[in-house]
Design goal:
By secondary structure, the chain is α/β, with parallel strands linked by helices. The protein is built from 19 helices and 16 strands. Helix 6 crosses helix 19, helix 8 (219-243) runs antiparallel to helix 9 (247-256) and helix 11 packs parallel to helix 13. The longest helix has 29 residues, at 280-308. The mean pLDDT is 94.
């Protein structure tokens, strides 16, 4: 389960179990009102997302939001660290100020608790491809390439901003009449409308491996855990619905009942199967497994609705599930993966559309699982291994077994512990070197290939950072951003090793 559920369930009678929300808040209101609302969400364990589009001057507002977040983190009244996201349209007249706001923050001694994403649409990229102009909301005409270059340069210098494609997220929004997405969760994995919250739980794929007669994916275990997770998250929604302090949160939750069955331990699973993360087979296996989880989660949500009822907006005129063809037939009906055929998706879509039985409007999401993964000793989210040395200082157990079985000298272990990767070690078989490549050893295009494969089989988006070596250039980052657009991703975040004095996590060097 996500950390808010693990932390709040059974411990607090008035705290919801949601991981994040877009607070229903007018950012043009008074500082005190904003502070009170944001602090309430953070103290309940929820990260927050904001849209800056309706603010004439977003800089003082964003700085005020950040001051609130920094002060809250130091107050001792927040039980867990929470993330924050600020989204602004590429067409906002002050977008350049937001693009550059975090450049030099370390040198100035500024502490930031906000991620920043620029909302970029198809129209912008068409202008970019033609080296044309775009028109900002105040009528100013700006060359698209100039803005794009500035975004890439800022990301090179400090890791922010990333890109988010809200038009694509809203194209897959199954309940657009309830409300359009205006921001995303702090790590970008799910679109959110004002007042909307998200509930996450995770399946540890590293523990879903059968070892006899040889390592293989235990599909029956994954199916069982997926069904269990759907019901557990729906129960968490019920508890949260009683404990939200704002009526708008309760109303949006009942209308949509969005849940996110996610995963961790993907890297662990691939290593157990002896499949390199950075390979076509690695992408294919990951995609096949996540598609299966998606299908089973919707099948179980369909079954659950027979006794508990469907999400509130299911029979609304704007529900895409009741269109012909319905949401599932349109989104997944042409998708053929190893464990779920096109016909299976189409049949499920027809069942849901004709019976109008579906408990949850969205069932799958891929959050980062940064803390949850560590708690259960699993690789985080859909990421590769960041280091071959565990947080406790020990060598990653599967690698240690492989080194010992290959008679690698224990003298090499000290070098491994210093570097966190196999790069500096000699005498390592190439098969092991390829299998155990860490985040920075994996080509950024291969990181994007994994996201691209998974994007086809999830409802919303994916939390995945594209890790870059320190010598990556702004031009290279711009090419990665363009590649994300071309591959139909819904967002992209990059982080260049060493671009900040303090990094979220040290990566192998």
């Amino acid at each position: 389960m996500s950390t808010p559920i693990m932390h709040n369930a059974g411990r607090y009678s008035k705290k919801p179990l949601a991981a994040c929300s877009v607070p229903p808040l007018d950012l043009n209101s008074s500082y005190k009102e904003i502070e009170n609302v944001v602090n309430a969400f953070h103290r309940n364990g929820m990260g927050t997302g904001f849209s800056l589009n309706n603010v004439a001057d977003p800089i003082p507002v964003l700085k005020a939001l950040n001051r609130i977040a920094v002060a809250g983190a130091k107050s001792g009244r927040e039980d867990r660290p929470v993330g924050n996201m600020a989204v602004i349209s590429i067409y906002h007249p002050r977008v350049m100020d937001v693009i550059n706001i975090k450049i030099g923050a370390d040198e100035r001694g500024e502490e930031w608790k906000f991620n920043i994403s620029i909302d970029v649409d198809e129209q912008f990229f068409r202008a970019l491809e033609k080296d044309g102009l775009i028109c900002l909301q105040d009528g100013t005409r700006v060359r698209a390439r100039s803005l794009f270059t500035d975004i890439a340069n800022a990301a090179y210098r400090c890791g922010d901003p990333g890109l988010v494609f809200l038009d694509r997220l809203n194209a897959d929004n199954p309940t657009p009449k309830v409300g359009l997405y205006t921001s995303v969760a702090p790590c970008g994995e799910v679109g959110l409308m004002p007042g909307e919250t998200c509930q996450f739980g995770y399946i540890n794929l590293g523990k879903c491996i059968s070892s006899f007669p040889e390592p293989s994916i235990n599909l029956s275990k994954i199916e069982h855990l997926t069904k269990l997770m759907v019901r557990a998250l729906d129960n968490a929604l019920e508890l949260s619905g009683r404990q939200f302090s704002l009526e708008v949160n309760r109303n949006v939750m009942r209308a949509k009942r969005k849940i996110g069955v996610g995963i961790c331990g993907l890297a662990d699973m691939l290593i157990a199967l002896r499949i390199p993360y950075a390979s076509e087979k690695g992408v294919r296996v990951a995609t096949d497994v996540v598609a299966f989880i998606n299908y089973i989660s919707k099948q179980e949500s369909h079954k659950l609705a027979r006794t508990r009822g469907s999400f509130g907006a299911m029979d609304d005129p704007g529900s895409r599930y009741t269109e012909h063809p319905g949401f599932i037939e349109q989104k997944y009906g042409s998708l053929e993966t190893r464990y779920v055929s096109k016909t299976m998706w189409q049949n499920l879509g027809v069942q849901i559309r004709t019976t109008q039985h579906l408990r949850n409007s969205i069932t799958i999401s891929l959050p980062p699982t940064g803390r949850s993964g560590l708690i259960i000793d699993a690789s985080t989210g859909v990421e590769p291994l960041f280091s071959l040395i565990n947080p406790d200082g020990n060598i990653y157990a599967p690698l240690l077994r492989d080194l010992q079985s290959n008679n690698i000298s224990p003298n090499s272990f000290a070098e491994l512990k210093r570097n966190g990767s196999l790069r500096a070690l000699t005498g390592i078989p190439e098969t092991l070197r390829f299998l155990y490549r860490t985040a920075l050893e994996i080509n950024p295009e291969q990181h994007i290939a994994m996201v691209s494969g998974l994007q086809r089989v999830v409802d919303d988006s994916i939390s995945k950072t594209i890790n870059l070596p320190s010598n990556s250039s702004p031009d290279y980052i711009a090419r990665l951003f363009l590649r994300a657009y071309q591959l139909n991703l819904k967002g992209i975040t990059v982080f260049r090793d060493g671009c900040r004095f303090i990094q979220p996590r040290e990566v192998s060097r």
